[in-house]
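Sequence, please.
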């Protein structure tokens, strides 16, 4: 098993590419069912990523239904590829969503939400280790975003696959997860 980010990124992209639509749906539902067990439901503002379907990311539709059923404020983001920063918006019935040039579904309009209001962040990733380190696509959007969150903001990775033992090339600027939820279990760091 590879242990550096570049090789792990490739390995997990290939594993994801092999998943069928029904695998993705089944695993996404299992992740959501595990989330229900977590002690995180006393918060108000929850940040959720909208999946890049072409990258076979976790389908967060189930999480969106769960959050709206619990009457929570749902926050989604728009990415600025020049500054590598994300701006956050409230997801409402009036929010228009459009895919950007990287196939990331983003809000076209909406009510801005300051980063400091966000209490729980569901974090996309390709791989993670038993220490709570994660590997994303390597652009640094989430590291920048999470670094600007309050220290008590709960960071929850969502993964189709279980953890690796260790990621070797972790940087000091990499923000660790508090939890990672897979179809099989909840990891606490």
């Amino acid at each position: 098993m590879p242990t550096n980010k570049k090789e792990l990124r490739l390995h997990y992209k290939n594993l994801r590419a092999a998943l069928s639509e029904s695998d993705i749906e089944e695993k996404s539902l299992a992740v959501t069912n595990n989330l229900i067990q977590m002690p995180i439901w006393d918060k108000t503002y929850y940040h959720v990523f909208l999946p890049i379907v072409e990258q076979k990311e976790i389908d967060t539709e189930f999480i969106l239904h769960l959050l709206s059923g619990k009457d929570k404020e749902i926050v989604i983001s728009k990415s600025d590829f020049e500054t590598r920063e994300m701006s956050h918006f409230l997801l409402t019935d009036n929010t228009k969503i459009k895919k950007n040039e990287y196939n990331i579904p983003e809000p076209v309009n909406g009510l801005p939400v300051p980063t400091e209001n966000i209490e729980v962040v569901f974090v996309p990733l390709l791989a993670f280790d038993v220490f709570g380190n994660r590997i994303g696509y390597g652009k640094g959007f989430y590291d920048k975003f999470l670094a600007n969150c309050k220290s008590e903001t709960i960071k929850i990775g969502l993964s189709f696959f279980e953890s690796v033992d260790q990621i070797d090339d972790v940087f000091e600027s990499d923000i660790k997860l508090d939890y990672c939820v897979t179809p099989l279990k909840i990891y606490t760091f």
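The domain at 5-188 is CATH 3.40.50.10420 (Rossmann fold).
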